[in-house]
Specification:
Keywords: Hydrolase. The protein is an alpha/beta fold. The chain contains eleven helices and twelve strands. 41% of the residues lie in helices and 19% in strands.
């Protein structure tokens, strides 16, 4: 029997009550993650702490460690035929801690799961939380898609803290590459002609990239850095290494931009005689495709919480949640940490992610996701659409 608007309101109230009763431990979990940042694929404390919090939810079924990923996690509550998946990220940035606010993301996912637990069976829902490692540098969600951890999902969602309130993010498709040039060392004064300068090769490649940017298509980006190149000023560097990223509006454009990067890197090797090694670092991230109906529902619920969201106004960054969106209806809204908040991946952003503003985003994000799940389960048209995709 379809749920009435009154029963939907009742379920929303029950979800809010459950979240409010458990909010202190949700926020404590966020702060604990923030104080103990762990890099991608090494989030051993984070996944253990998340598993403990989830195991305390009545009726929850929790498994930490999935397939080849020891820091991945799955938890489910309810046994209904409609499966809604909430994604939690908890990896930190090298040298910057939680300057992308993944402590907020994980806590909001936990909060939404807790909120939905008392109403899941009444709504004909299975609520699934997936702990997804290494969003920053390893594409954990892509690997989890490949090993079947998302199987059975009808829709997926997560929120991301930021410096603006937007209904959806507009990330680029992205690929990363580790670049190494191998030359031959020699004394830079006594016998430089005997050397093959790996730093020169990298310099030529960087110059080529700088010039090639003039002819890149709209939406294409190439950027990178040198990690190491030489050990002493009087020695011809026999090795130079760095990492480069290519971004574009979609994976087709990304392939064309990657061909430009490859030519630039080849130029350094050709000009100097150094040997180039160019290896893709992690999986390709696709462009994000958000589900319009889910975006509308989340926006309406966020507005009810006093946080109206604007349409996306800028493109930037990349996320492996985009790969999920190519397989399942997905949303990925951004929720602001407040006026004057620095941008993500700024060291100051990490401070705000553990502040009262961060805690407020956890509440708003968790409840808006929970209410959106209630809407999807309550509306017969949405249930039919999600469970019987064209």
């Amino acid at each position: 029997m379809p749920l009435t608007s009154q029963s939907t309101s009742d379920h929303n109230a029950r979800a809010e009550q459950a979240l409010r009763a458990n909010l202190p431990r949700v926020l404590a979990f966020s702060h604990k993650l923030h104080e103990n940042p762990e890099l991608g694929f090494a989030e051993f404390q984070a996944v253990q702490w998340l598993a403990q919090e989830l195991a305390a939810v009545p009726g929850a079924r929790v498994q930490a460690g999935l397939g080849s990923l020891p820091t991945a996690l799955r938890a489910e509550v309810g046994s209904g035929p409609l499966v809604l998946t909430i994604c939690a990220e908890y990896d930190a940035l090298p040298g910057l801690g939680h300057a992308c606010g993944h402590n907020v993301i994980a806590a909001a996912a936990l909060g939404a799961f807790i909120a939905l637990a008392p109403v899941a069976d009444d709504l004909g829902l299975t609520v699934r939380l997936l702990g997804t490692p290494a969003e920053e540098n390893g594409g954990g969600k892509v690997l989890m898609l490949e090993q079947g951890d998302f199987a059975g999902t009808h829709a997926a969602m997560m929120i991301h803290p930021g410096d603006v309130d937007e209904l959806e993010m507009l990330p680029y498709a992205c690929a990363g590459y580790k670049i190494q040039y191998f030359g031959r060392g020699a004394h830079a004064s006594a016998s430089p002609w005997e050397g093959i300068n790996a730093l020169d090769a990298m310099t030529i490649a960087m110059t080529a990239v700088g010039l090639a940017r003039q002819q890149l298509e709209p939406g294409q980006q190439i950027h990178g850095y040198i990690d190491s190149a030489g050990t002493a000023p009087n020695v011809i560097p026999d090795h130079a290494a760095g990492e480069w990223m290519v971004r574009a509006h979609d994976v087709e454009s990304l392939a064309r931009a990657t061909a430009v990067l490859t030519r630039c890197m080849d130029a350094g090797a050709l000009a100097t005689g150094a040997r180039l090694e160019m290896v893709q670092h992690g999986p390709i991230y696709a462009e994000l495709r958000t589900d319009p109906a889910m975006v509308g529902l989340f926006g309406a619920n966020s507005a009810l919480l006093g946080r109206p969201l604007k349409p996306a106004g800028r493109r930037g960054g990349s996320t492996d949640m985009a790969n999920v969106s190519h397989e399942y209806p997905t949303i990925h809204p951004m929720i602001s940490l407040g006026e004057g908040c620095p941008g993500i991946h700024d060291s100051s952003f990490a401070d705000v992610a553990a502040s009262a503003q961060g805690d407020h985003v956890i509440w708003d994000g968790a409840l808006a996701m929970a209410w959106t799940c209630v809407d999807l389960a309550s509306d017969p048209r949405q249930r039919l659409r999600l469970m019987n995709p064209a």
